[in-house]
Amino acid sequence: MRTSKITTALALAALVVAVLGTTPLGHAAGSVLPRSSVGTPQLKKSAVTAAKLKANSVTGAKVADGSITAADLKAGTLPGGFSDLELVEVASANDSTSPKTVWADCPPDKHVISVGGWTGGGLPIALANMTKISESTGVASAYETTATASNWVLATTVVCARLG
Q: What's the CA gap between 100 and 140, in Å, rounded?
């Protein structure tokens, strides 16, 4: 008998709320807190955790540039960076041979970070390739776009560094 009275009372309360609109407490919250008004200043530290976020609700587009540091990421996510930069340059013979290819190697324990090349002589020469071909070697190649008997040189420069 008691259970039926509780059920009836709950049903009656629900009917009153539905007929009369929102409760005073709900109405007060609506007037005090405008839509989308709760943000970072209102949240307690550590109140929003990964477990409380909907899957895929935070995307790269929603993260402010510069707001994430290496400390925010799981260990091993970012490479350790590099140090001890060194330029190594190797030049070809100064002759009229075409095409030319020159390799430059980094010292032991250093890796190629970048490869560049240049030609000298002011002739119709085209750089055809500047590539890292292994962790420690870079190569550049060039050729005469118009045959010439004039001498020219090709140089390859690699930027080498220790990683980590």
A: 8
> Do 86 and 159 belong together in one domain?
yes
Asked if residue 43 and residue 65 are part of one domain, the reply reads: yes
Q: Which tokens in the block code for residue 7?
A: 């059920």
pLDDT at 107 over 70: yes
Instruction: Give the residue from 103, 106, 105 showing the smallest Cα distance to 84.
Output: 106
In tens, the pLDDT along 74-100 reads 776 666 777 889 999 999 999 999 999
d(CA 111, CA 86): 10
Domain match, 9 and 58 both: yes
Q: pLDDT tens, 5-22?
A: 666 666 666 655 555 555
Number of other residues whose CB lies within 10 A of the CB of residue 124: 13
In a domain, 77, yes or no: no
Number of domains in the chain: 2
